[in-house]
Every structure is written in structure tokens, then in C-alpha cells.
Amino acid sequence: MPDADTAPLISMQGVSKFFDEFQALKDVSLCVKEGERVVVCGPSGSGKSTLIRCINRLEAHEAGDIVVDGVTLSDKTLDHIRGTVGMVFQQFNLFPHLTVLENLTLGPRRALGLSEEEAEARAMLYLERVRIPDQANKLPRQLSGGQQQRVAIARSLCMEPRILLFDEPTSALDPEMIAEVLDVMVELARSGMTMIVVTHEMGFARKVADTMVFMDKGEIVEIGPPEQVFKAPKSARFATFLNQILNH
């Protein structure tokens, strides 16, 4: 658990986000400290993915303030944010025509200015960490879904971000592949990485989360430590959601 006295690494205050007439986020406030692991859950359309996409400026919010690592998010601070915040997507988003190694070295070479040798050394280090160094010279289509998602995690790690965002990282995977990805994420959490994970994997949440966030209709309805919110949810909406997920 992070130190309660330290300033938050991420601070969202009164954040709202619209898509035309639809309000995806409604006056959302959330603070995440360095080393904290936050799991965000909620029904489809509740604003979970929009929340994390605003943190790395993939979506621009219309109202409120988001401060990441001491920098207020705006179009002018994109370079800082993209270097600080890594993201792992539901659909992997690997370049299909590049090998695993080439997918991992592209960012460090272009964005960080690493030499080819340095970038490849870093890439192999993180492929070892996600336990697939033997897949370095394959194309994404030659890998299983679980392996592709582990490549995507390693690719984010190659940029050495301070924060990792996960947008339903296991929802596109077959059941037998989910465990191998969650195992890697558990190891990352235990290493002290600051993580915000949008997921319905409640077993993972119980194991690694410091904070659970339940969203519905663009609002944070409930927030607290997992042992508190699982045992005694304060809102009927969260209690119903938990019952549906756990008995699915």
C-alpha cells in the first residue's frame, strides 16, 4: 500500500467528458498515489474506459482538471503524459507486419532515442519478465491471444512508464489464456507499479487491488478497499453488480 502522506501521482477533480449529447463522465474525482493499484469495474457504458482514456489524453475532457505526475493534462503536455503513462488495450493493438521484437523496440528508438542495440536489450529484458523471450522473432499472428497480450504489456514496459493503464486486458481472451495474463499483472502489481485496471476479474481485484472503484452511468458510485466493498457494499447498484459477476 502506498504511503498515505505522499502527494497523488494522478489527481482528477470534477472531470466531465461528453460525446456529442451523451455525458460519459459526470464530475468525476479520483486520486491515485504512486504504487497504488486501482481496479475499476462497472456495467457496460458506465464510463470505465473513458476514465482511463482521459488519464493518458486519448480522450480530451471538457471540464475539470487532471494532473499526472505534477503536470496538468492539455494538448501542450502530450509528450510528457505519453512518456509517463503506458496503456494496455483490450485488442492488443500490435503492429501485425512487425515481429514481436520490432513492436517492442519501435517506441524506445523513436520516442526515447535509444540505439537499436539498447532498445533490443531492453525489449528482451521485458520479454523475459512476461515469460516469452522465445517469441521475439515471431509475428503477432503466430502467437496465441494470451501471448499477444503479454507482448503488449512488455511493449508498454519498454517505455518505462510510471503508470500503467489496463483497459479490460483479458476480455478478448479465451478462458485458458486469461490466467497467464493475470499472473503477469499480479507480478507487476507486486513489483510496485502504479496501475489502474478496468476489469471484471474480481479474483484479481481481491488479490492485488488497494482500491476498488465502482462506476455506473458516468459516476463513481462506490470506492474503497476491496475487503470493505466486497463484504459490505454501500450502494444497491454495486451489490447487484457484484452478485451478477460473482454468480455468472
UniProtKB/TrEMBL annotation:
Fetch the InterPro entries from UniProt: AAA+_ATPase, ABC_ATPase_HisP-typ, ABC_transporter-like_ATP-bd, ABC_transporter-like_CS, MetN_ABC_transporter-like, P-loop_NTPase
Q: Read off the SMART domains from this record.
A: AAA
Query: Domain of life of the organism in this record?
Result: Bacteria
* Matching CDD domains: ABC_HisP_GlnQ
**Alphabetized GO MF terms:** ABC-type amino acid transporter activity; ATP binding; ATP hydrolysis activity
Q: Does the keyword Transport apply?
A: yes
Write down the PROSITE patterns for this protein, in alphabetical order: ABC_TRANSPORTER_1, ABC_TRANSPORTER_2
Keyword Transport attached: yes
- ABC transporter domain location: 10-242
Q: Name the UniProt key words of this record, in alphabetical order.
A: ATP-binding, Nucleotide-binding, Transport
Family annotation (SUPFAM superfamilies)? P-loop containing nucleoside triphosphate hydrolases
Matching Pfam families, A to Z?
ABC_tran
Q: Name the protein family.
A: Belongs to the ABC transporter superfamily.
Q: Write the protein's name.
A: Glutamine transport ATP-binding protein GlnQ
In its UniProt entry, the species of origin is given as Thalassobacter stenotrophicus
Q: Which gene encodes it?
A: glnQ_2
